[in-house]
Amino acid sequence: MERFTGKVVIVTGAGSGIGAATARRFGAEGASVVLAGRTREKLEQTAQGMEPQRTLIQVTDVARLEQVEALVRAAVDRFGRLDVMVNNAGVAPEGRITEASVDDWRQVMSIDLDGVFHGCRAAMPELLKTRGNIVNVSSVSGLGGDWNLSFYNAAKGGVSNLTRALALDYGREGVRVNAVCPSLTRTDLTESMFEDQALIDRFRERIALGRIAEPDDIAAAIVLLASDDARFITGVNLPVDGGLCASNGQPPQ
């Protein structure tokens, strides 16, 4: 199935995890894909096996608006248009508010929230031309709270509400804006958690489908929301969590 033939997509945080899986999925469905991230070597690894004529690597720090604006210009210069902006880049420092540092707060806000704002702002003029769409990567942590992740929760809560607001502001002009809200997903960002098997087992007990998400699970939802199959869906923060939210986070009885 090639739902994106002739379409141009930017994916931030494309060097690993959800971003890498998403970029490859768009490429497999016919899109021209711009891979954005801070480390060229990781982006090159993602690009392996993708069609070279439909792939562009752009080293980008999403915390810097001018670099995100340059990213959008590079996409349009190379491929002539922009149809989908996927704002995925993120970090997740741990610690209670009196323990994690002020620098941690500034880092997570600059990447997880400012980075999404920068991507939406820079991409919107081009998306208005193509009646394209945005998919932000929020989190179930943007819909509720977590222990030891207050900074991340605050940033992702901002992403979720920014998504709703932009959907209202731009829907009449043909631009859809949605977000996916993954639960725990096996990526480089969460690698340290998987060293604690007891923790992972407890988490798995809270998920209706009985397993932890893989990056391809989240990528499939992102691509769905970006496709014409979701043409009447906007302003949605879609939990992609295996039923975690349905259970209110409670383990089985």
TrEMBL record:
Location of the Ketoreductase domain: 7-187
The record's section on NCBIfam families has: PRK07231.1
Quote the Gene3D superfamilies the UniProt record gives. Answer: NAD(P)-binding Rossmann-like Domain (3.40.50.720)
The protein's matches in CDD domains, at most eight in alphabetical order, are given as:
SDR_c
What is the protein named? Meso-butanediol dehydrogenase/(S,S)-butanediol dehydrogenase/diacetyl reductase
Q: Which SUPFAM superfamilies match?
A: NAD(P)-binding Rossmann-fold domains
Q: What PROSITE patterns does the database record attribute to this sequence?
A: ADH_SHORT (PS00061)
